[in-house]
Design brief:
alpha+beta; HSP40/DNAj peptide-binding domain; Alpha-Beta Plaits; 2 domains; 4-stranded mixed beta sheet; 4 helices; 34% strand
């Protein structure tokens, strides 16, 4: 079982890791953004090491969290980039209803000027299928994230 030993931002731990990196002994554990808040997690590193992570409620996984650091190797958490579905409501009323809809589905959202961005925690088409009643009626338009 693994817990958080420290973070890459710690200069002392950073020196130890630097040496291990040159020897190719630092494994990365890629975590999805939606899993950051979990306190129990099982995952594989990029080199196939199985990790059972158990951390106290007052801690959170973060990019650069060190789960293992010894003379032989290290395991460092990397957070995958969050993907967003960007939507442009046609009117204020459509924006309010879209926000209500997203809230009822417990989707994480953020707002940028007149856009609503939904955090994708699964296949994009699942979200688009749920939003079809808005999109097909022309009440919401999907905007490219480019």
């Amino acid at each position: 079982m693994f817990g958080i030993t420290g973070y890459l931002s710690d200069p002392i731990l950073g020196e130890q890791l630097h040496s291990l990196q040159h020897q190719g002994r630092v494994e990365s554990l890629l975590i999805q953004p939606q899993d950051v808040a979990r306190h129990r997690l099982r995952a594989l590193t990029d080199q196939g090491t199985e990790c059972q992570i158990v951390i106290p409620r007052d801690q959170r996984l973060g990019d650069g969290a060190i789960l293992l650091l010894d003379a032989e190797r290290a395991i460092v958490v990397r957070i995958d980039e969050q993907r967003w579905l960007t939507l442009a409501p046609s009117s204020l009323a459509d924006a309010l209803e879209l926000g209500y809809f997203c809230g009822n589905l417990h989707w994480r959202v953020r707002f940028e000027v007149d856009l609503v961005q939904v955090a994708l925690e699964g296949p994009e088409h699942d979200y688009l299928d749920r939003l079809a009643l808005f999109i097909d009626a022309g009440r919401v338009r999907r905007v490219s994230n480019e």
